[in-house]
Amino acid sequence: MNTLGLIVLLLHLLGIAALLGGLLAQARDSEKRITPVIRDGVGTAFVAGIVLVGLLEAGDGDVNHLKIGVKFLVNLVVLVLVMANMRKPSIPNGLFWALTGLTVLNVVLALFWSGGHTY
Ligand code: HEM
Questions:
Q1: What is the 110 CA–ligand 1 centroid distance (Å)?
Q2: Can you give the residue ranges of every domain in the chain?
Q3: In the structure, which protein residues have their CB atom closer than 6 angstroms to any atom of ligand 1?
Q4: Helix pair angle (36-58, 3-24), 10° resolution
Q5: Tell me: the pLDDT tens digits for 60-116?
Q6: Coil, strand or helix at 32
Protein backbone atom coordinates (compact mmCIF):
# COMPACT_ATOMS: atom_id res chain seq x y z
CA MET A 1 0.00 0.00 0.00
CA ASN A 2 1.40 3.44 -0.84
CA THR A 3 1.91 6.29 1.60
CA LEU A 4 -1.60 7.64 1.03
CA GLY A 5 -3.05 4.22 1.85
CA LEU A 6 -1.00 4.00 5.03
CA ILE A 7 -2.13 7.50 6.09
CA VAL A 8 -5.79 6.50 5.56
CA LEU A 9 -5.17 3.22 7.45
CA LEU A 10 -3.69 5.34 10.29
CA LEU A 11 -6.87 7.49 10.30
CA HIS A 12 -8.95 4.28 10.29
CA LEU A 13 -7.08 2.96 13.33
CA LEU A 14 -7.23 6.34 15.14
CA GLY A 15 -11.01 6.40 14.57
CA ILE A 16 -11.30 2.89 16.01
CA ALA A 17 -9.10 3.90 19.00
CA ALA A 18 -11.36 6.91 19.71
CA LEU A 19 -14.52 4.76 19.41
CA LEU A 20 -13.28 1.89 21.60
CA GLY A 21 -11.43 4.21 24.01
CA GLY A 22 -14.51 6.42 24.40
CA LEU A 23 -16.58 3.34 25.22
CA LEU A 24 -14.13 1.51 27.51
CA ALA A 25 -13.41 4.72 29.47
CA GLN A 26 -16.99 4.44 30.75
CA ALA A 27 -16.99 0.67 31.38
CA ARG A 28 -17.12 1.08 35.17
CA ASP A 29 -19.42 4.14 35.18
CA SER A 30 -22.98 3.57 36.39
CA GLU A 31 -24.24 6.20 33.91
CA LYS A 32 -23.00 5.70 30.34
CA ARG A 33 -23.60 7.97 27.36
CA ILE A 34 -22.54 8.57 23.74
CA THR A 35 -19.77 11.18 23.85
CA PRO A 36 -18.48 13.33 20.93
CA VAL A 37 -15.27 11.20 20.96
CA ILE A 38 -17.34 8.04 20.32
CA ARG A 39 -19.34 9.79 17.58
CA ASP A 40 -16.25 11.20 15.82
CA GLY A 41 -14.41 7.89 16.22
CA VAL A 42 -17.09 5.71 14.60
CA GLY A 43 -17.54 8.28 11.80
CA THR A 44 -13.80 8.47 11.09
CA ALA A 45 -13.39 4.66 11.15
CA PHE A 46 -16.34 4.28 8.74
CA VAL A 47 -15.27 6.88 6.17
CA ALA A 48 -11.57 5.91 6.31
CA GLY A 49 -12.54 2.24 5.90
CA ILE A 50 -14.52 2.98 2.74
CA VAL A 51 -11.68 5.12 1.34
CA LEU A 52 -9.25 2.27 2.12
CA VAL A 53 -11.34 -0.13 0.07
CA GLY A 54 -11.38 2.38 -2.80
CA LEU A 55 -7.59 2.71 -2.67
CA LEU A 56 -7.11 -1.07 -2.55
CA GLU A 57 -9.50 -1.57 -5.47
CA ALA A 58 -7.75 1.20 -7.47
CA GLY A 59 -4.33 -0.27 -6.63
CA ASP A 60 -3.20 -3.88 -6.96
CA GLY A 61 -4.56 -4.88 -3.56
CA ASP A 62 -6.86 -7.90 -3.50
CA VAL A 63 -9.96 -6.99 -1.50
CA ASN A 64 -11.85 -9.74 0.35
CA HIS A 65 -15.33 -8.42 -0.49
CA LEU A 66 -17.21 -10.72 1.90
CA LYS A 67 -14.94 -9.68 4.80
CA ILE A 68 -15.31 -5.99 3.93
CA GLY A 69 -19.09 -6.43 3.45
CA VAL A 70 -19.47 -7.89 6.95
CA LYS A 71 -17.24 -5.18 8.48
CA PHE A 72 -19.26 -2.51 6.62
CA LEU A 73 -22.57 -3.83 8.01
CA VAL A 74 -21.22 -4.11 11.56
CA ASN A 75 -19.80 -0.57 11.39
CA LEU A 76 -23.08 0.74 9.92
CA VAL A 77 -25.07 -0.75 12.82
CA VAL A 78 -22.66 0.84 15.33
CA LEU A 79 -22.83 4.19 13.48
CA VAL A 80 -26.66 4.23 13.38
CA LEU A 81 -26.95 3.26 17.07
CA VAL A 82 -24.43 5.93 18.06
CA MET A 83 -26.19 8.67 16.04
CA ALA A 84 -29.64 7.59 17.27
CA ASN A 85 -28.56 7.84 20.92
CA MET A 86 -26.24 10.84 20.65
CA ARG A 87 -28.62 13.29 22.39
CA LYS A 88 -29.76 10.99 25.21
CA PRO A 89 -28.43 11.90 28.71
CA SER A 90 -27.56 8.22 29.23
CA ILE A 91 -27.80 4.88 27.40
CA PRO A 92 -28.81 1.44 28.73
CA ASN A 93 -26.03 -0.94 29.76
CA GLY A 94 -27.20 -3.42 27.10
CA LEU A 95 -26.69 -0.88 24.31
CA PHE A 96 -23.29 0.12 25.72
CA TRP A 97 -22.02 -3.48 25.72
CA ALA A 98 -23.59 -4.15 22.29
CA LEU A 99 -21.63 -1.19 20.83
CA THR A 100 -18.44 -2.37 22.55
CA GLY A 101 -18.95 -5.98 21.46
CA LEU A 102 -19.66 -5.07 17.81
CA THR A 103 -16.56 -2.85 17.69
CA VAL A 104 -14.36 -5.61 19.13
CA LEU A 105 -15.97 -8.04 16.64
CA ASN A 106 -14.74 -5.87 13.75
CA VAL A 107 -11.23 -5.77 15.21
CA VAL A 108 -11.26 -9.58 15.44
CA LEU A 109 -12.58 -9.89 11.87
CA ALA A 110 -9.92 -7.48 10.58
CA LEU A 111 -7.09 -9.39 12.25
CA PHE A 112 -8.16 -13.04 12.08
CA TRP A 113 -10.21 -13.25 8.87
CA SER A 114 -7.37 -13.95 6.44
CA GLY A 115 -7.40 -13.15 2.77
CA GLY A 116 -7.33 -9.78 1.14
CA HIS A 117 -5.28 -6.67 1.89
CA THR A 118 -1.65 -6.27 0.78
CA TYR A 119 0.55 -3.55 2.14
C1 HEM B 1 -15.95 -0.54 13.97
C2 HEM B 1 -15.50 -0.59 12.75
C3 HEM B 1 -14.17 -1.15 12.28
C4 HEM B 1 -13.15 -1.71 13.00
C5 HEM B 1 -13.07 -1.92 14.52
C6 HEM B 1 -12.10 -2.07 12.05
C7 HEM B 1 -10.87 -2.64 12.40
C8 HEM B 1 -9.78 -2.70 11.54
C9 HEM B 1 -8.43 -3.07 11.95
C10 HEM B 1 -8.00 -3.45 13.38
C11 HEM B 1 -7.64 -3.02 10.83
C12 HEM B 1 -6.13 -3.29 10.74
C13 HEM B 1 -5.99 -4.74 10.35
C14 HEM B 1 -4.57 -5.08 9.98
O15 HEM B 1 -3.75 -4.19 9.88
O16 HEM B 1 -4.34 -6.27 9.73
C17 HEM B 1 -8.50 -2.65 9.72
C18 HEM B 1 -8.06 -2.52 8.42
C19 HEM B 1 -8.93 -2.30 7.38
N20 HEM B 1 -10.28 -2.03 7.44
FE21 HEM B 1 -11.38 -1.87 9.11
N22 HEM B 1 -12.50 -1.74 10.78
C23 HEM B 1 -13.77 -1.20 10.88
C24 HEM B 1 -14.57 -0.78 9.84
C25 HEM B 1 -14.23 -0.89 8.52
C26 HEM B 1 -15.09 -0.56 7.39
C27 HEM B 1 -16.52 -0.01 7.51
C28 HEM B 1 -14.39 -0.83 6.24
C29 HEM B 1 -14.81 -0.67 4.79
C30 HEM B 1 -16.02 -0.60 4.35
C31 HEM B 1 -13.07 -1.30 6.65
C32 HEM B 1 -12.05 -1.65 5.78
C33 HEM B 1 -10.76 -1.92 6.16
C34 HEM B 1 -9.65 -2.11 5.21
C35 HEM B 1 -9.75 -2.07 3.70
C36 HEM B 1 -8.50 -2.31 5.99
C37 HEM B 1 -7.04 -2.49 5.47
C38 HEM B 1 -6.85 -3.77 4.89
C39 HEM B 1 -7.24 -4.86 5.83
O40 HEM B 1 -6.57 -5.02 6.85
O41 HEM B 1 -8.21 -5.57 5.50
N42 HEM B 1 -13.00 -1.34 8.03
N43 HEM B 1 -9.79 -2.46 10.19
A1: 5
A2: 3-112
A3: 9, 12, 16, 45-46, 49-50, 52-53, 56, 68, 71-72, 75, 78, 103, 106-107, 110-111, 116-117
A4: 150
A5: 667 899 999 999 999 999 999 999 999 999 999 999 999 999 999 999 999 999 755
A6: strand
